[in-house]
Amino acid sequence: MAAVLSHRCDVTDGAALAALAGEIGPIDALICSAGINLRPRDNSPERLELAAWQKTLDVNLTGTMLTVRAFRPSIRPEGAIVTLGSVAALRAMPWADAYTASKGALVALTRSWAVDYSRDGIRVNCVCPGPVDTGMMAGMIEQHAGAQQLQLPQQRMARPAEVAELIAFLVSPGSSYISGTVIPVDGAATAHSAGMPFPRRRVPGGQAAG
User: Fold this and answer.
1) Can you tell me the distance from the alpha carbon of 75 to that of 93, in angstroms, rounded to the nearest whole number?
2) How many angstroms separate the CA atoms of 207 and 210, rounded?
3) Which one in 47, 74, 195, 203 has a CA-CA gap of 20 to 30 Å to 144?
């Protein structure tokens, strides 16, 4: 790739995205990476705040759709789109219903777009990271009383560069026949349990099972 550019934009603002697309001009690849996780405001149905539910869907799901809608006409034939899902779309992730719903929907949309845009040779794939050593993940770890709560076969979180390497491959000529795929980058977490702690079962008397 000749150049990789990143841009800041409110992905919930379709007009702003369209203006940015016009400013940038033709592109070879689009990476939809905007996302939020609002736990603990995002939680189980009886605990989550509706405002957090709506905001999460607005950014993670609608924001990705608006980004694709704005930039799709600028993508050159044989180009690529990469969406950012999560292991939450592939395995149960407790106490984050809005986040889980948004990422699950992105997986479904990725497959639809891979078929829709195949007529122009545009490939669409979804990368689903597990726990990654980022600021977002640091906040989640604090809620679970430390990194020891993460049950990861590789015994560590992913480094951001490890996710970026896969994205770079998916937008390169080397992946010219890969489309419609959903690829975890999780150190075998989805083969285990997505790496997240699960609720302990309640027993009569209000105590959790040991």
Assistant:
1) 34
2) 9
3) 203
Q: What CATH number is associated with residue 55? A: 3.40.50.720
Number of separate domains in the chain: 1
The closest alpha carbon to 10, from 75, 66, 52, 85, belongs to 66
Active site residue 99: yes
Q: From edge to edge, which strands make up the β-sheet containing 182-185?
A: 27-32, 75-84, 123-129, 182-185
- Structural domain for 84, as ranges: 26-192
30 bridge partner residues: 81
Q: Is residue 143 part of a domain?
A: yes
Is 15 part of a structural domain of the chain? no
Catalytic residue among 53, 71, 95, 99: 99
pLDDT, one tens digit per residue, over 30-73 is: 999 999 999 999 999 999 999 999 999 999 999 999 999 999 99
